[in-house]
Design goal:
The chain is α+β, with helices and mostly antiparallel strands and 429 residues long. 24% of the residues lie in helices and 48% in strands.
Length: 429
């Protein structure tokens, strides 16, 4: 029997509908021999392979259909099919990737919401999870430098001028935060995961500065750990953590660390929740890098409330205590922060605001000689972040943040003024 290409394509589609995948597969291969860029033929082949339970090969065919698609509707259908076949093959991470593509090309908002829900369901079943945040931040003070060339202690110029490297330096900070976890146990109300995190801050100076380079103030933190979540009821859960790792500063190992933490999230009402947590970390300093051993204890309390219209309000209080054998390391810090997220968009953006205050106290501090009364810093900080959900790609949303900080100290080296604008991306779901 001789068939034209349109006739063969129509017959292959009918064969799929009648549960004749082998016929459809044979016809699709003939169509692809005639035109390897026939996206519809790739799609038919993928569906036929799926009906034959050849899920891995079928997903590859669906991926080819996606790449050769000519319209957004065709891309949506191909991505949806690839996600289904990857899920059937128990390749859940691949299924999540294709669901993100399906979300991006969804033909309507209702369909988009359905596939966001499907993504979350697959993510819940997937033992492997990961999250990535990235930002580029131009700043007028990348080194947390002083706002004056003089170092005054209680108003007295005993020390004199600061080096250029100790003063505020403009530049750019590229921040990458990668978090991964793998579930090793799950039962009703309990879950245990292996965790990992890499946090990188790469600094580039706008202009050369004597005595310092961007790499000198760049940092990297890598950690591995285990986290256990226990939810004895529907009103909240406990989280227990053990972790350890290493930090690098200026490209050199700075200190190794090991920590333990416990936290509780408690639902207080329909829209109100309380979070409490504490963490202890032991740091083993690399003396060749100028670091010393330290014990760091922190505690945090937070209260969050959902508002009518989809907005939210949150207040956090943090205490941090550092005990160290190093000079100018032992300190105590209190921080308080308020955050407000608007429920409705302003134009294309959803906007959130933060405002906070911090006090940092060193009982003993040396600048050539001991500073009477130690060192005390008082800081105000705040910012605004605009999230552009309407400009998302595969569920990743661009964010624009403006931040500012003003610190005043009895040692003018730590009188710091900082402002920055940051462009980043985050996952919407």
């Amino acid at each position: 029997m001789r068939l034209s290409l349109p006739q063969a394509q129509a017959l292959a589609q009918q064969a799929l509908g009648k549960g004749q995948p082998r016929t459809a597969l044979t016809l699709s291969e003939g169509l692809l021999a005639a035109n390897p860029e026939n996206g519809h033929a790739h799609f038919i082949r993928a569906r036929a392979l799926g009906q034959l339970t050849q899920y891995r090969t079928g997903q590859h065919a669906a991926a080819r259909a996606y790449r050769t698609a000519r319209t957004d509707v065709q891309r949506f259908e191909a991505a949806k099919l690839a996600a289904e076949l990857a899920f059937a093959d128990e390749r859940l991470t691949a299924s999540q990737l294709w669901l993100r593509r399906a979300v991006h090309y969804a033909p309507s908002e209702d369909v988009r919401r359905d596939y966001v829900t499907a993504f979350r369901n697959v993510r819940h079943r997937n033992p492997l999870s990961f999250n990535l945040r990235f930002s580029i931040t131009p700043s007028d003070n990348v080194n947390n430098g002083a706002n004056s060339p003089w170092n005054l202690i209680e108003g007295s110029p005993l020390v004199g001028a600061l080096s250029p490297s100790a003063q505020a330096i403009p530049g750019i900070v590229a921040k990458t935060d990668m978090i991964g976890a793998y579930r090793i146990h799950q039962a009703e109300g309990v879950e245990t995961r292996l965790t990992g995190r890499v946090l990188s801050n790469e600094v580039r100076l706008n202009n050369p500065v004597a005595g310092i380079s961007g790499s000198d103030i760049s940092s990297l933190r890598a950690q591995l750990g285990v986290a256990h979540v226990w939810a004895p009821g529907k009103d909240g859960y406990w989280r227990f953590e053990l972790n350890g790792g290493r930090t690098w500063y200026g490209r050199a190992p700075y200190y190794d660390f090991a920590g333990v933490g416990i936290s509780r999230v408690q639902k207080l009402g329909e829209r109100l929740s309380l979070s409490l947590g504490t963490h202890f970390e032991e740091q083993n300093g690399r003396r060749v890098a100028g670091s010393r051993d330290a014990s760091v204890w922190s505690a945090v309390a937070g209260l969050a409330r959902g508002l009518t219209g989809g907005g939210s309000l949150r207040a956090d209080l943090l205490y941090r205590d550092i005990d160290s054998d190093g000079v100018n390391r032992t300190s105590r810090q209190w921080s308080a922060q308020m955050s407000y997220a608007m429920g409705r968009s302003i134009g294309p953006a959803k906007i959130s605001f933060t405002l906070g205050h911090s006090t940092l106290d060193y009982d003993e501090y040396w600048v050539i000689t001991p500073v009477p009364g130690g060192r005390v810093d008082d800081s105000w900080f705040g910012g605004a972040t605009a999230s552009f959900a309407g400009w998302s790609y595969m569920g990743f949303v661009p964010e624009l943040s403006l931040t500012a900080e003003r610190s005043r100290s009895n040692i003018s080296r730590f009188d710091v003024d900082l402002s920055a604008i940051s462009l980043g991306i985050r996952s919407e779901f």
